[in-house]
Amino acid sequence: TREAQLNSILATVPDAMVVIDDEGTMVSFSSTAQRMFGYEESEVLGKNVSMLMPSPDREAHDSYVGRYLATGERHIIGSTRRVMGCRKDGTPVPHELAIGEATGGGRRLFTGFMRDLTQEEATAARLKELQ
Ligand code: HEM
């Protein structure tokens, strides 16, 4: 099936992938995203993506998405940005976020690819200490 094909592709992409609708509700959560954030897919589907980030973005994220829908002004879409996520156990997870936009069955969807920077940043910090 298409879904099995898509899942096998996603399993080989090193980035976590999260898909949300125009209200910020999560509709897909890849297995890499499950490892990165510590949630099972069933724990997050139907919930707002803001649960994956710390304050103050957590409270403001709906307004970021709303502003984009109202103005079409891109702030992250079309580029990448280092942002901070928040794992289920509360530990922060720095990552590089890229967002794409798609339309599916009349719905507006956003796809987020997230590359975990935890190891990279820990290594950089250790190197700096050694200097
Ligand atoms: C916008 C943070 C995850 C979709 C934003 C902005 C911030 C942000 C700060 C506004 C940027 C600005 O005004 O300069 C975060 C953080 C995340 C996260 C900390 C960590 C979990 C996601 C994911 C998606 C997503 C996974 C989609 C699947 C969007 C959309 C916008 C947005 C659609 C508005 C479009 C734009 O500003 O270009 N986010 N985000 N975000 N985010 Fe997120």
UniProtKB/TrEMBL annotation:
It comes from the Bacteria. The keyword Disulfide bond does not apply. Coiled coil: none annotated. One of its GO terms (molecular function) is phosphorelay sensor kinase activity. Residues 2-72 form the PAS domain. GO terms for biological process: regulation of DNA-templated transcription. Keywords: ATP-binding, Kinase, Membrane, Nucleotide-binding, Phosphoprotein, Plasmid, Transferase, Transmembrane, Transmembrane helix, Two-component regulatory system. Putative oxygen sensor; modulates the activity of FixJ, a transcriptional activator of nitrogen fixation fixK gene. FixL probably acts as a kinase that phosphorylates FixJ. This is Sensor protein FixL. The chain holds residues 260 to 390 of 630 of the full protein.
